[in-house]
Amino acid sequence: xxxxxxxxxxxxxxxxxxxxxxxxxxxxxxxxxxxxxxxxxxxxxxxxxxxxxxxxxxxxxxxxxxxxxxxxxxxxxxxxxxxxxxxxxxxxxxxxxxxxxxxxxxxxxxxxxxxxxxxxxxxxxxxxxxxxxxxxxxxxxxxxxxxxxxxxxxxxxxxxxxxxxxxxxxxxxxxxxxxxxxxxxxxxxxxxxxxxxxxxxxxxxxxxxxxxxxxxxxxxxxxxxxxxxxxxxxxxxxxxxxxxxxxxxxxxxxxxxxxxxxxxxxxxxxxxxxxxxxxxxxxxxxxxxxxxxxxxxxxxxxxxxxxxxxxxxxxxxxxxxxxxxxxxxxxxxxxxxxxxxxxxxxxxxxxxxxxxxxxxxxxxxxxxxxxxxxxxxxxxxxxxxxxxxxxxxxxxxxxxxxxxxxxxxxxxxxxxxxxxxxxxxxxxxxxxxxxxxxxxxxxxxxxxxxxxxxxxxxxxxx
Amino acid sequence: xxxxxxxxxxxxxxxxxxxxxxxxxxxxxxxxxxxxxxxxxxxxxxxxxxxxxxxxxxxxxxxxxxxxxxxxxxxxxxxxxxxxxxxxxxxxxxxxxxxxxxxxxxxxxxxxxxxxxxxxxxxxxxxxxxxxxxxxxxxxxxxxxxxxxxxxxxxxxxxxxxxxxxxxxxxxxxxxxxxxxxxxxxxxxxxxxxxxxxxxxxxxxxxxxxxxxxxxxxxxxxxxxxxxxxxxxxxxxxxxxxxxxxxxxxxxxxxxxxxxxxxxxxxxxxxxxxxxxxxxxxxxxxxxxxxxxxxxxxxxxxxxxxxxxxxxxxxxxxxxxxxxxxxxxxxxxxxxxxxxxxxxxxxxxxxxxxxxxxxxxxxxxxxxxxxxxxxxxxxxxxxxxxxxxxxxxxxxxxxxxxxxxxxxxxxxxxxxxxxxxxxxxxxxxxxxxxxxxxxxxxxxxxxxxxxxxxxxxxxxxx
Lengths: 462, 462
Description:
Number of helices of chain A: 18
Oligomer: homodimer
CATH architecture of the largest domain in chain A: 2-Layer Sandwich
Low-confidence stretches of chain A: 1-5
Shape of chain A: globular
CATH topology of the largest domain in chain A: Uridine Diphospho-n-acetylenolpyruvylglucosamine Reductase, domain 3
Mean pLDDT of chain A: 95
Distance between the termini of chain A: 26 Å
Strand order of the largest sheet of chain A: 15-12-14-13-17-18-16
Radius of gyration of chain A: 22 Å
Number of strands of chain A: 18
Largest interface: A-B, 91 and 91 residues
């Protein structure tokens, strides 16, 4: 925490001249910006800045580049793979004050926002329009952060991830150029897809300052239901058959019995303690009834109990609030623990097998291992609860995770469905994509020859 | 056509040693590979090769690189912006014999194909599975070509373009490396999105040899309908209101009265000669009825006549066959003419205005200017028919197109919704994206420092 003393004070002076009070080197603020939701040790930046505009971000980038100081973009710090840790020190560029909704185009079903706008803020802002923004990773993350990590979550099975839902980005590059990656038209074949190149680049190729996202009409009917099953296999089979039947289910998330028990205790809910699927159906009244009937029938054949419905908006919100709190609820299974969260995603035909083998494997872990995930996409998470005071536990959890990743890769899956690479998945990424990772490294060098843009993440310099 | 004489005969010898009879320098074959559906003058390659595997493509690339010979990937030659013209000579790499379907994963809703498989071939191959591949640019293009040009077409309004429907690619790079861009999982946050970088790169960054695409369940009901309107404005208003109402329409294409007249003459159909929208609805029986009723009501309010239905598969195919033949039908408006096809795409809120102003402008063109397009996406085409013997007509058509592009750009649109940049849209691309095009050029240089991969397309070397 003493790095600030060595930090070039002329950088601070220049940033102060630019930003006035909107730069800080206070220990508390630096510490806050040096940790996320991951298990990695704190790595505070030397300074934190709060720009208000793309132009200010560009000026910050220019100052940092001249002084060869690392730059780490920061949203709200909810990432899970150490994305925002300042492992080489430098300046944390906190975009939370760039939180203006710049335009809502109701007719075009899109909105242009500054990178610091959170998904809940946007949905609140557009409530009266009858539109909504679907991507929902649980946390109330910023749209800039969600774009940077290619976030997804519960709604992705129907509405896609940030990959599908970002129309265009404004990005400040390492050399100070500011580019708009695309026009606002719904589709385009105009050159290389720079939008998608920056979506998921985790701040390593440039700093996203504005995001144009797709919006969707709120459907006539939106109903959620939970369904308990005898076994996890029953859950996965139900979801697989639902997808294959072409039911346009809007959400289908799994939680295991340990997770639902933790949710009940944390949220004072009274769900049956059993493997459970949370469903949501969107469409016309008739279509939602039809979808629900089809899925209920599939569920019954796989050992599912009756659906427990939530149709009013507040009931639906409550239900998904319970699901979204699963992470924090599960942390209470072992008070004081931190979580190592896994994130594999496999082709859905291999999902049951992958979950089954994994649950067998984790039986031997030192603590209960709750499971939760977006099984409509083949993506699930385990939470290994580790005592931060006992490094051997972290090592053990990592061993389980390595086996899980190897299992998923052998099934043509990916090491990360939605959390990103950050610091935690670099070795797995190399196993997963081989020489393609060298190509990523070439791209990193092209965009950031000085290795100053969130260094050490995704593909660190050799 | 005499370039072959100067062409390094040692290249031919090496290619022949590799490929035996599967290399040709015959004038007829070279001429065939030196033209597409665009208005650009023929530019034949020096040789044409027909690889059968990714390894052969890699070996071809190695030979061409050593001899500094341009390489132009070729599918079936249906592109519209000169993509496959060998403007610097070189070797046309015809992938049409790489036409094996490598795997169909019915449970995962995906298929892995060699780049030369065409969309109709794939759909025929998977017919028995109850799945289909939706992207449909009209022509029976190869999936490699469609990926390379980020093709879309009539179904994109519901199912997305190649951007959304390619899961992974195998690509041979200019330096001979072979990479797989992604795993087969439905979503992934594993590093930079190389898949999307190659989708739309038009053969300028590498040669796509395998494509993994998404498939969709054939819906219970699929009904098509045509609806004639008093005015083009009535068509556009209907489609805009349909999209905004959240109706998940599967297709909605417009043709103007001139186009429908040409179709009637070419296909011996008897559609009413009036601005017309071709619709298609996919879903359960109940949902399709519901969708159709909603849209019929919207259409009536905007001067639409009664729907003329096609519900049986053969009737539907006939209807879309008529629509797909619009291009060739319109060429007959002026026998012997070639077409300069425009391709702007604008935010849907500006569509009516853009179409209206454009139709006013083209009144003064020397020939009828038929309009057709995918207006659910805000994408429409005009066909300027030019006499190839009169260069001044081509110049005039280009002037109209430049005005159209400027109009679309002023409305936050793009110069190309689906045809790509090729040789025809480079100036427009620069207007559209400014400094972002410099970034594209940097990427081109990184991937292809020798400027041998389809040189002169998208972002030519300065």
